[in-house]
Amino acid sequence: MKSKKLSIFLLGPGNVGKELLKLIIENKLTLEQNYDLDIRITGIFNSKYGINNKEGIHPDQVNNICSGLTLTSDTITSDNLPNLISHNPKPSILIDTTSSPVSFDILLTALKSGSFVVLSNKRPLASSYSVFHKLHSYGLNRIFYETTVGAGLPVIRTVNTFMETGDEILEIKGCFSGTLGFIFSSLEDGMPFSKCVEQAKKMGYTESDPREDLSGQDVARKIIILSRMIGMEIEMEDIEVQKLYPSSFDKYTVKEFMGVISKLDKKYQEKFQKANKRNNTFRYVAKVSKKGCTIKMTEAAKNSDLGNLSGPDNIIIFKTKRYFDRPLVIKGPGAGPIVTAAGVFDDIISIIKIIHGV
Amino acid sequence: MKSKKLSIFLLGPGNVGKELLKLIIENKLTLEQNYDLDIRITGIFNSKYGINNKEGIHPDQVNNICSGLTLTSDTITSDNLPNLISHNPKPSILIDTTSSPVSFDILLTALKSGSFVVLSNKRPLASSYSVFHKLHSYGLNRIFYETTVGAGLPVIRTVNTFMETGDEILEIKGCFSGTLGFIFSSLEDGMPFSKCVEQAKKMGYTESDPREDLSGQDVARKIIILSRMIGMEIEMEDIEVQKLYPSSFDKYTVKEFMGVISKLDKKYQEKFQKANKRNNTFRYVAKVSKKGCTIKMTEAAKNSDLGNLSGPDNIIIFKTKRYFDRPLVIKGPGAGPIVTAAGVFDDIISIIKIIHGV
What we know:
NADP binding (chains A, B), methionine biosynthesis (chains A, B), HDH_CS (chains A, B), 7-stranded mixed β-sheet, homoserine dehydrogenase activity (chains A, B)
């Protein structure tokens, strides 16, 4: 006889969501035994359709979704989603692996009704400060979002550890975009800027409009989350973000944009060549401190932590009161559905430990 | 009215223990409010003496210990320690910040009586496999030891995350000794081996007998903990450890040893010079994989993660099924009382979250 029934409700069975469902299914039995739980997936929704069952969705249906079958109109629509979520049997975890800018209300409904929330979706936390604050107002350890910065790399929990143990974070510095890491590594190898962007686009590293990455917007969303975690009441417009292309290119369609970027090739080539003569290179570096946030192309010595970075790796360098002379550094791939799903799953395990109690 | 009284019992009010007591006192009120707890320090013991009070030791007494007053024979002796610990009011955390090789029985008493255990003391976990196994047999999340490898760096919890989320660790590789990191950095800069060791000893980086470090024993203790965490039933004699001095030097006193190590200067100088010509350097690298464990001087490209290391920093490189093409890397100072105490305190907070439950 299991002591507690844990309901799991998923928004966004996309690349990350499907990998996550697989992980939950694979590890369900072990978790149930270790933590004396009965784990049920009670809802799976995308923006249009969903399936829902308070007693747990049949494993065959979950497997169908994992193996690529999409939700169809045979299943119920998302109209009464807030209602379903607030009546999801407790204890309950709502997971948002969408990239929706409008999931805020649903997350709030979940928190209000006593659910835990796990996000890989950066947007709710990166919108206005008041939204960030509101999502954190339902008590300690109710909302988890390890994968919003650096995917599965232990970034958010390291920030939390610093804060909870009374350390003071003086500066967080690093490269937070695998896409831009790949482009900068290729520039360093002498590839023209336009070719770097084309290749990154072809390999699926960039968003379908590469300006989403090249404008620094994706990095800015991560930086604003870190800034707010260390207590800054900051809005997007407070961050100084350098675009990697002239604003005059904003008016173009994606196709037109891809046509004109070769105009930037010479400029980038010269910059990297000059830096190379000084045994330096360039990185797209974001910096957070109490003084403010900046995101810009930065020259770095090749044998420094930043300059030594290669390919799509992320690097995060923490300078704190305790890690002052020598920083704490975390490095590795900061994107990808499998490592992201594993990070979300780890957040779920943290919640399970809390639910299990003693 | 607080709902739960949490007792904290400390063995070893030394450098780390005192910093820890300070952290507990500084953060007590916030923790109590956040987690609805009444936190009491109920025992502080060194190997000879101790103070104990089930209702909580008076803050003045704790402050006296923090500010350097040692425990004296005015206070009770440690003879009935197991008895005190097993009757320590629950929930209770026993903390071992000693470097005692014989605290195992006391830890076991604590676990048996329902306490949680936190260690920065490597020795109980690094003794026989059966002891390691026994300490883990009292249930999940009952024993925490983040600081036994890499001090405050998030090493142990990263291993736990891999294991719990169903990843497979293929290799853990790195430099786990700040002392040897310092010595190898100095060798790289051209300093003679004997001078490096002398300076490291003078700066308090080495144990009073530097052979404790130079024999690789300190690294081996960390490696055996990591190996066992990933499921290897390994004993110390199974690890291939390279000493940094000839075994014939083992017979000397410390003073004699310090007198003869200049005999090794030329050998080390030549090794580093040759490597330098290949744009390489040497590191003292430990490697763990299912195939076995090795700890030895290893040549590394200067622009690699290992070769790029400097000073007393530790580096830990995880290659797993998910982090296969590009590893997850953690780097930073892996020793020091303040970061170690903070790591122990973070383990305590993890336990408090579990005790708090929902």
